[in-house]
């Protein structure tokens, strides 16, 4: 029995929205999805007219949909933005080189300029080499920290005003859960903000226009619009801690579909007691990037990799920062602790 | 294995024996009897000391409970609350070194009606519990949950804390001795019709998640009412560290981020005059189990709504199995989550005004849809999926309090036009929606009808609605917001 769309009431409903459970036809769904992103952008005042905005594109569904929607909304509502694509090459064979091909295709389809930055040229290490040294348990830390800096450096090279990433509602909810599980109160406070602070040089503010879009709806959108994207999981990711939060979230969604937005609401409304120690923003003394310690995390990680001490940077080694800065050799005992690698 | 011409290996290896004879890490003399955390074996007496000291330190450090104060212990019969009872007994006993000095009473809520237990089953469980309570010597009350249908509206309202705290408490210690005799006070009997109404009420919640939240709310109201009528100013709950970690995760998933500090903190003063205290919150479930086993603390097993359900039956059940599983791989999970809860506080300070409080959970409302918040995104989504009048594509800003459509059938309800006398109308969901906090709104969404809610909730809802209509009429003439509620 054909159900009619609950929005326009005329056409046949083609899909059921995961977010609210309403049955909608294709056009009304596209309209609703795009309209929601537009409202998010307008209410949070994410962009100003005349800015150059870089879209962080990985070739996956989130960034492809983001690029498409940004282009559509930019024209429809005259944001007056100049858009371009940035992509990061981590050097994971079999995964990243395929997705980069997708990004290059996107560039042609959307007619946007593209810049690719790679770990190899920035740091001298590819993820494959890192995993060989570090093992498979803590490698996501390296990739995430390096990618963040890579995006910023790429943005600086292109001289853009803002970066926007394709983080969706599921990602933000997973981050909230993960921070609760890990007890990271500082991150818990910051992770639900839609855009990062914009002071400081060497820092390009970034925002998440898709913050309230469900992952399933993004897939639905890409499917019905026949967008071209690359859809495989990173080969190194199965053992990440985030996987636990992700399965929990998926189960929650099956019990109550609104849980994802509920978790974001919880994250936005919790408040931290006064007197709890919070990190203070400063700059790294070696590379000048923003950091809350004397040395930024990527310098510490790089140092560990270059010296063959892969565990430097995983766990708490603040006391060793001074030693690293002043180029002193580490004692035997410290070296031994830092070398052990789980397979 | 047992073949005829089998070759045995020349040398069989001995299995490595665990070092069983380890010494207690504290007194270093006795043999260890229990391993609490990895690397901390304790002998019996040191463990008992550790447990007792932790309990007394929790109460003493926070200085919440005054000497001579009347304190109500909510005992469900499970391991944590039984351990709490036995600790209080010990602490008040004559032989204790640093005696606890308050006046305890016990309360147990018999929820058998909500769970569908038969009358005989309920009576059996209650008599087991009564036997335990009688040996303690404290005054005790056993109340059936059906009583919640007859509560007055004060159960959902805050009241200012009573003024007789520290100075007069020494005087009260004199009066307290009469209460120490213990024994049951007059008990209400269970009425069949009431049990049916209660089951109807819980049946109107269509999902198990909503049912459990509703049950929790009703239980809370009943406990507060009991404490108020009998003059107790503190209510001790026996929630352990593990259970609070699960509760934290559940609250985050239900959208109760603003109230995390009150739901999982040491003290919870949302009701004003009655404070909830959780003295067992630093004890993990494992420590409590070991303690109960070693020192033979009597417990009674009472089934709950979640018993024997599947893992994904409700959010609460899912969180519990998730935390237990994670704890196996990462043994510090529960304590990390617990430490997170310690660093949180209630947002926005204490607001005594009733209009600023949720009708059901009595926490401050968190439904002010700020710009670019999750709540606003949700309202926009719902508006976009509704039938629009022909020709308009523009999205209107949502009204400041509550969504315009609460059900998923695609109909936009309009905001209430003129003031209607609500005593003649059947209660509807949208009347209650704007009086609830975010997560209670979700619970309401899962209910098929609100007609079965207890009378006190519906009456209070009508009263608050009338009051807010009055306020809207005179809004432009009010100079300042009221500080506290005037009766």
Automatic annotation (TrEMBL), chain A:
Residue ranges occupied by any tRNA(Ile)-lysidine/2-thiocytidine synthase N-terminal domain in the UniProt entry: 53-246
Record-stated family: Belongs to the TtcA family. CTU1/NCS6/ATPBD3 subfamily.
Cytoplasmic tRNA 2-thiolation protein 1 C-terminal domain location: 282-312
Any one GO CC term of the record: mitochondrion
First-tier enzyme category under EC: transferase
Domain of life: Eukaryota
Pathway as given in its UniProt record: tRNA modification; 5-methoxycarbonylmethyl-2-thiouridine-tRNA biosynthesis
Residues at which ATP binds: 56-58, 62, 88, 166, 171
Organism: Oryzias sinensis
CDD domains given in the database record: CTU1-like
Main function: Plays a central role in 2-thiolation of mcm(5)S(2)U at tRNA wobble positions of tRNA(Lys), tRNA(Glu) and tRNA(Gln). Directly binds tRNAs and probably acts by catalyzing adenylation of tRNAs, an intermediate required for 2-thiolation. It is unclear whether it acts as a sulfurtransferase that transfers sulfur from thiocarboxylated URM1 onto the uridine of tRNAs at wobble position.
Annotated GO MF terms: ATP binding; nucleotidyltransferase activity; tRNA binding
Keywords: ATP-binding, Cytoplasm, Nucleotide-binding, RNA-binding, Transferase, tRNA processing, tRNA-binding
Protein name: Cytoplasmic tRNA 2-thiolation protein 1
Record-level GO BP terms: protein urmylation; tRNA wobble position uridine thiolation
Gene3D superfamilies in the record: HUPs
Pfam families, sorted: ATP_bind_3, zn-ribbon_14
Entry-linked InterPro entries: CTU1-like_ATP-bd (IPR056369), CTU1_C (IPR032442), Ncs6/Tuc1/Ctu1 (IPR000541), Rossmann-like_a/b/a_fold (IPR014729), TilS/TtcA_N (IPR011063), tRNA_thiolation_TtcA_Ctu1 (IPR035107), UPF0021_CS (IPR020554)
TrEMBL record, chain B:
Record Pfam families: CTU2
Keyword Cytoplasm: yes
GO biological process: protein urmylation; tRNA wobble position uridine thiolation
SUPFAM superfamilies per UniProt: Adenine nucleotide alpha hydrolases-like
Record flagged with keyword tRNA processing: yes
InterPro entries listed in its UniProt record: CTU2 (IPR019407), Rossmann-like_a/b/a_fold (IPR014729)
UniProt GO cellular component terms: cytosol
Recorded metabolic or biological pathway in which this protein acts: tRNA modification; 5-methoxycarbonylmethyl-2-thiouridine-tRNA biosynthesis
Alphabetical UniProt keywords: Cytoplasm, tRNA processing
Physiological role: Plays a central role in 2-thiolation of mcm(5)S(2)U at tRNA wobble positions of tRNA(Lys), tRNA(Glu) and tRNA(Gln). May act by forming a heterodimer with CTU1/ATPBD3 that ligates sulfur from thiocarboxylated URM1 onto the uridine of tRNAs at wobble position.
Name of the featured protein: Cytoplasmic tRNA 2-thiolation protein 2
Organism: Oryzias sinensis
């Amino acid at each position: 029995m054909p159900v009619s769309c609950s929005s326009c009431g005329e056409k046949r409903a083609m899909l059921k929205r995961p977010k609210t459970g309403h049955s909608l036809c294709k056009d009304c769904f596209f309209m609703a999805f795009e309209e929601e992103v537009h409202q998010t952008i307008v209410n949070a005042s994410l962009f100003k007219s005349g800015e150059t905005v870089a879209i962080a594109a990985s070739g996956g569904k989130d960034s492809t949909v983001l690029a498409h929607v940004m282009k559509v909304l930019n024209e429809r509502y005259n944001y007056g933005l100049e858009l371009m694509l940035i992509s990061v090459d981590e050097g994971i064979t079999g995964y990243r080189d395929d997705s980069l091909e997708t990004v290059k295709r996107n560039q042609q389809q959307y007619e946007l300029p593209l810049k690719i930055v790679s770990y190899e040229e920035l740091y001298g290490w590819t993820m494959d080499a890192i995993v060989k040294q570090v093992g498979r348990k803590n490698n996501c830390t390296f990739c995430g920290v390096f990618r963040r800096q890579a995006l910023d450096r790429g943005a600086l090279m292109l001289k853009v005003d803002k970066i926007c990433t394709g983080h969706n509602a599921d990602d933000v909810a997973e981050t909230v859960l993960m921070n609760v599980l890990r007890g990271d109160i500082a991150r818990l406070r910051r992770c639900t903000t839609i855009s990062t602070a914009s002071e400081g040089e060497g820092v390009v503010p970034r925002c998440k226009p898709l913050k309230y879009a469900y992952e399933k709806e993004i897939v639905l959108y890409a499917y019905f619009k026949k967008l071209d994207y690359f859809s495989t999981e990173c080969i190194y990711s199965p053992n990440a801690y985030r996987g636990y939060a992700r399965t929990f979230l998926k189960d929650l969604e099956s019990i109550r579909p609104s849980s994802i937005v509920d978790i974001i609401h919880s994250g936005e409304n919790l408040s931290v007691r006064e007197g709890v120690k919070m990190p203070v923003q400063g700059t790294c003394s070696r590379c000048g990037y923003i950091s809350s310690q004397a040395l930024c995390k990527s310098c510490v990680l790089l140092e560990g990799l270059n010296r063959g001490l892969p565990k430097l940077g995983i766990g708490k080694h603040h006391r060793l920062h001074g030693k690293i800065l002043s180029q002193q050799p580490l004692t035997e005992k410290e070296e031994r602790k830092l070398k052990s690698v789980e397979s | 294995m047992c073949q005829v011409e089998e070759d045995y290996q020349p040398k069989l290896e001995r299995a490595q024996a665990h070092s069983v004879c380890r010494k207690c890490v504290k007194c270093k003399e006795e043999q260890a009897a229990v391993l609490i955390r990895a690397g901390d074996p304790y002998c019996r007496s040191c463990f008992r000391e550790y447990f007792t000291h932790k309990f007394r330190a929790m109460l003493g450090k926070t200085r919440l409970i005054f000497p001579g104060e009347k304190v109500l212990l909510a005992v469900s019969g499970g391991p944590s609350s039984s351990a709490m009872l036995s600790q209080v007994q010990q602490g008040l006993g004559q032989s204790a070194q640093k005696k606890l000095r308050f006046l305890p009473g016990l309360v147990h809520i018999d929820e058998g009606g909500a769970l569908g237990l038969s009358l005989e089953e309920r009576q059996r469980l209650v008599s087991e519990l009564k036997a335990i309570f009688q040996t303690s010597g404290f005054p005790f009350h056993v109340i059936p949950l059906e009583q919640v249908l007859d509560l007055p509206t004060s159960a959902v309202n805050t009241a200012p804390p009573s003024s007789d705290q520290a100075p007069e408490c020494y005087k009260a210690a004199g009066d307290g001795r009469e209460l120490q005799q213990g024994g049951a006070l007059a008990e209400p009997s269970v009425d069949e019709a009431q049990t049916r109404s209660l089951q109807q009420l819980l049946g109107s919640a269509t999902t198990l998640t909503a049912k459990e939240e509703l049950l929790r709310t009703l239980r809370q109201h009943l406990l507060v009412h009991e404490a108020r009528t009998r003059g107790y100013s503190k209510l001790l709950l026996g929630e352990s560290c593990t259970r609070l970690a699960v509760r934290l995760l559940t609250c985050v998933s239900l959208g109760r981020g603003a109230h995390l500090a009150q739901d999982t903190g040491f003290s919870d003063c949302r009701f004003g005059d009655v404070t909830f205290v959780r003295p067992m919150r630093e004890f993990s479930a494992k420590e409590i189990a070991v303690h109960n086993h070693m020192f033979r603390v009597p417990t009674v097993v009472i089934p709950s709504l979640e018993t024997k359900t599947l893992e994904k039956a409700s959010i609460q059940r899912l969180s519990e199995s998730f935390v237990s599983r994670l704890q196996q791989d990462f043994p510090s999970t529960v304590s990390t989550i617990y430490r997170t809860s310690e660093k949180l506080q209630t947002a926005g300070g204490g607001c005594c005004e009733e209009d600023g409080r949720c009708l059901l959970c009595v926490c401050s409302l968190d439904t002010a849809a700020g710009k670019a918040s999750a709540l606003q995104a949700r309202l926009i989504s719902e508006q976009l999926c509704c039938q629009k009048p022909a020709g308009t594509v523009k999205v209107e800003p949502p009204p400041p309090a509550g969504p315009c459509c609460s059900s998923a059938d695609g109909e936009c309800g309009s905001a209430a036009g003129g003031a209607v006398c609500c005593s003649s109308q059947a209660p509807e969901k949208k009347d209650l929606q704007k009086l609830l906090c975010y997560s209670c709104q979700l619970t309401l969404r899962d209910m098929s009808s609100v007609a079965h809610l207890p009378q006190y909730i519906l009456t209070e809802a009508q009263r608050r609605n009338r009051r807010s209509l009055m306020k809207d009429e005179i809004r432009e003439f009010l100079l300042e917001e009221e500080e506290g509620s005037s009766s």
